[in-house]
Amino acid sequence: MSKQHNPPTTPAQEAERYLENARQILTEKAGKEDGLYADVKYVKMAAGTAYSAALLILDEYLRQKEGIHFTKPKSIEDYRNRLRKFDKKLLTLLVDVYDELHIAGYYHGTQSVNTIQTGLNNVRLMLNYI
């Protein structure tokens, strides 16, 4: 019998669930040795999942700030331009997370534990904004 999951009630809880899934993938499947991940496939999977959490957070943040005028951003540049109006620290976190998780982790498949862990920690910091 499979475990039943109660659906998260807030965007913050959903983002938290994505982050937890990313950590679980890294812990159970990526294999860590001497500061490097052994299986890049799972690093890419986890990095993509964690980056999705960041986008969920940003969408909710912008929804709160823009209210009825909110539309989902269509590009990273759109996120950057809109965040620039509201919070420079959150913008900096986005730039870091984009580089650490989306580019290095998901796109390039870095083996660097440090890069991925820094990205996950930055997404956790982003959670404080919603």
Q: Would you kindly provide a written description of the structure presented here, covering whatever features stand out?
A:
The protein is mainly α. Helices cover 70% and strands 3% of the residues. It has helices spanning 11-30, 40-66, 76-84, 88-107, 113-127, and strands at 32-33, 36-37. Strands 1-2 form a two-stranded antiparallel sheet. It is globular and about 45 Å long. It starts with 10 loop residues before the first helix and ends with a helix. The model has no long low-confidence stretch (mean pLDDT 94).
Radius of gyration: 15 Å
Please tell me what the overall shape is: globular
Query: What is the mean pLDDT?
Result: 94
Q: What structural class results from the helix and strand content? A: mainly alpha
Low-confidence stretches: none
Note the main sheet: 2 strands, antiparallel
**Main sheet: which strands, in order across?**
1-2
Number of strands: 2
Beta-strand content estimate: under 5%
Distance between the termini: 35 Å
Helix count from the secondary structure assignment: 5
Report helical residue fraction: over 70%
Order of helical and strand elements: HEEHHHH
Would you kindly provide a brief summary of this structure?
This protein has 130 residues and is mainly alpha-helical. The chain has five helices and two strands.
Helix and strand topology:
Elements: H1 11-30, E1 32-33, E2 36-37, H2 40-66, H3 76-84, H4 88-107, H5 113-127
Antiparallel strand pairs: 1-2
